[in-house]
């Protein structure tokens, strides 16, 4: 195996500094566990840590390595341990707002080619949640594909109806319905997985991501758990993000189920996901139209005549408000952190001069 088999393409080659190869080796982050990493190249999987210099030079969580990153590493102890010195520029970065009240980014994975957004055809099926995933992937310039699991629960005509609903919000998106109970089901997903490309499984707990992954690997490697019958919700089986190299040469990143999908800084993602609303906004009487109460609003007119659905419109407005609010909080926090950092440097400089 070489680094090309792990997804290192010409795009990354053009972004690397060849002078660094004299001291460091290229490797890919395949797992993250708090402050420790697992990296891989032509050698075995090796545990790694980041250098103190890298740790203290970061401005935010976005500057830390994450699963899927290409990094420059220095190997020690007969290649049994490594230290990460730098991150190769990313082709894509999948992120979300951290859960809870804290306003910060949580890294999900980097350098993904295709996101497999998974919903099950039971209580979990939800177009509004799907729109949130699409905003996240479109913002990151990642190609989305929708997987509908548990197709054995519905008759064929009902499945076609669900697929039509998805195409109504994103006409050209690929949708694949399958069942983990049917031996031929995962084969339709396998056909999507191209060698040397990186895929990411996204979806709530209980939709069957881990079962699908076991089927793709043709063996039970990861533990699965049942879902509650009353609401279809599952427990978190996957507890960390991990990049897995499949036998056909494709790579897939399994992610823990996400109950919160807060987003901010997602103007591009909103524009791509709700492109018909964005197109209408160009016809509004005011350039800064909020599409809530202004006269001459083309979006509200389309809402009234039924061109766009009320549920889709409400989700668009809600996500716009969320993004604006969280982004303002994030920028205020960054400003305070920067001021605090300057103050610390001034104090340290003053102490040094007094010696």
UniProtKB/TrEMBL annotation:
Cofactor(s) demanded: Zn(2+)
Subcellular location: Cytoplasm
InterPro entries per record: G_CP_dom, P-loop_NTPase, Ribosome_biogen_GTPase_RsgA, RsgA_GTPase_dom
Cofactor binding note: Binds 1 zinc ion per subunit.
Primary localization class, coarse: cytoplasm
Listed GO biological process terms: ribosomal small subunit biogenesis
Binding locations of Zn(2+): 284, 289, 291, 297
Binding site residues for GTP: 149-152, 203-211
Broad EC category: hydrolase
E.C. number(s) listed in UniProt: 3.6.1.-
Every EngC GTPase domain range: 110-259
Keywords, sorted A to Z: Cytoplasm, GTP-binding, Hydrolase, Metal-binding, Nucleotide-binding, Ribosome biogenesis, RNA-binding, rRNA-binding, Zinc
Single Gene Ontology MF annotation: metal ion binding
Record's GO cellular component terms: cytoplasm
Residues in CP-type G domain copies: 101-261
Family membership noted in the UniProt record: Belongs to the TRAFAC class YlqF/YawG GTPase family. RsgA subfamily.
PANTHER family assigned to the protein according to its UniProt record, in alphabetical order: SMALL RIBOSOMAL SUBUNIT BIOGENESIS GTPASE RSGA
HAMAP family registered for this protein in UniProt: GTPase_RsgA (MF_01820)
Role of this protein: One of several proteins that assist in the late maturation steps of the functional core of the 30S ribosomal subunit. Helps release RbfA from mature subunits. May play a role in the assembly of ribosomal proteins into the subunit. Circularly permuted GTPase that catalyzes slow GTP hydrolysis, GTPase activity is stimulated by the 30S ribosomal subunit.
Assembly: Monomer. Associates with 30S ribosomal subunit, binds 16S rRNA.
Name of protein: Small ribosomal subunit biogenesis GTPase RsgA
Species for this entry: Desulfonema magnum
């Amino acid at each position: 195996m070489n680094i090309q088999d792990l997804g290192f393409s010409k795009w990354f080659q053009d972004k690397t500094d060849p002078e660094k190869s004299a001291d460091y080796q290229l490797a890919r982050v395949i797992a993250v566990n708090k402050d420790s990493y697992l990296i891989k190249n032509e050698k075995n999987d090796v545990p790694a840590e980041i250098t103190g210099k890298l740790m203290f030079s970061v401005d935010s969580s976005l500057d830390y390595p994450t699963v899927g990153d290409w990094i420059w590493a220095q190997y020690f102890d007969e290649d049994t341990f490594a230290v990460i010195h730098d991150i190769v520029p990313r082709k894509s970065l999948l992120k979300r707002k951290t859960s809870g009240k804290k306003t910060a980014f949580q890294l999900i994975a980097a350098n993904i080619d295709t996101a497999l957004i998974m919903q099950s055809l039971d209580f979990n099926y939800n177009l509004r949640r799907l729109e949130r995933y699409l905003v996240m992937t479109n913002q990151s310039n990642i190609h989305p594909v929708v997987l509908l699991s548990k197709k054995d629960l519905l008759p064929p005509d009902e499945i076609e109806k669900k697929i039509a609903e998805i195409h109504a919000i994103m006409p050209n998106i690929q949708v694949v319905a399958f069942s983990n109970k049917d031996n031929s089901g995962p084969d339709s997903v396998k056909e999507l997985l191209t060698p040397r490309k990186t895929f990411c499984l996204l979806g709530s707990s209980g939709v069957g991501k881990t079962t699908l992954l076991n089927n793709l690997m043709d063996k039970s490697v990861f533990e699965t758990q049942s879902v509650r019958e009353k609401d279809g919700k599952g427990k978190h089986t996957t507890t960390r993000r991990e990049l897995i190299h499949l036998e056909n040469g494709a790579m897939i990143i399994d992610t823990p189920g996400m109950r919160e999908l807060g987003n901010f800084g997602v103007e591009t993602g909103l524009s791509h996901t709700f492109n018909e609303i964005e197109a209408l906004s160009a016809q509004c009487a005011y350039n800064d139209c909020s599409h809530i109460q202004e006269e001459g609003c083309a979006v509200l007119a389309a809402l009234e005549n039924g061109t766009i659905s009320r549920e889709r419109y409400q989700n668009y407005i809600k996500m716009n408000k969320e993004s604006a609010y969280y982004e303002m909080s994030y920028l205020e926090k960054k400003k305070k952190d920067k001021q605090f950092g300057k103050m610390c440097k001034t104090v340290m400089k003053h102490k040094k001069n007094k010696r």
